[in-house]
Amino acid sequence: MTREPSPACAASRPLAPPVSGRIIKAEADVEEGAAHLAAICPRLAHARALCGPVPLRRRPDGFAALLSAIVSQQLSTSAAGAIWARMQAAGLTAPVPIRHAGDDDLRAAGLSRQKIRYIRALADSDLDFNELRDLSDADVVARLTALPGVGVWTAEIYAMFSLGRADVFAPGDLALQEAARLLYDLPERPRPRDLRQMAEAWAPWRSVAARLLWAYYRIAKQREGIR
User: DSSP of 138-162, one letter per residue?
Assistant: First the structure.
């Protein structure tokens, strides 16, 4: 069982209703969120002071961004980065080249048989990436997880980094779990459902809280927690 967040964090929650539909576009948006989080939680204030400016981590949306998230599933940041670099070098980051590529070409990039199946399904899908921009956070996750091989983590990462959603969190991420354990002095890594519950106190800036925890993980563990 995990412990609750610091009482000071819970007691300092703002009374105003959460901001809805906020999009993170620039460093100033991240700084606004980080300032809010530091004001409501001493632990997050400590992390912010330790880490300095929180990275923006915005990426273009579209096929390549979702493909990259699928490639990164259940891999270390270094392994995922190496595979993605080989895919870029081979021109395998768009639907048509993937459809025309043989399995041997995809395996040469470092993809497993299972991930080859997933990215072929993505390449053959009729997913409307422009439409995703106008959906609610919950509908984005639902639409993406309907695709083979796209789990909640992948959908939430896409919503955070490619769509810029300000109030999305990815509690299934191991680096976030470990960062929360260290920052909040928990006896063990919080389970995804427990971390999701903890993150409710960080609304409406849960995506910035995730960025801050990844930054804290990098300093605490001396390695990157997210690509």
Answer: HHHHHHHHTSTT--HHHHHHHHHHT
**What is the pLDDT at residue 9?**
65
pTM for the full model?
Answer: 0.87
Distance CA 102, CA 92 (A): 11
Query: What does the DSSP 8-state code read for residue 18?
Result: P
Query: Which of 117, 135, 161 is where one domain is finished?
Result: 161
pLDDT at residue 216 above 70? yes
**126 lies in which domain range?**
63-161
Residue type, 39: A
Cα–Cα distances (Å) from 214 to 51, 74, 148, 152, 171, in that order, read: 10, 16, 27, 18, 12
Which of 144, 161, 178 corresponds to the end of one domain? 161
In a domain, 175, yes or no: yes
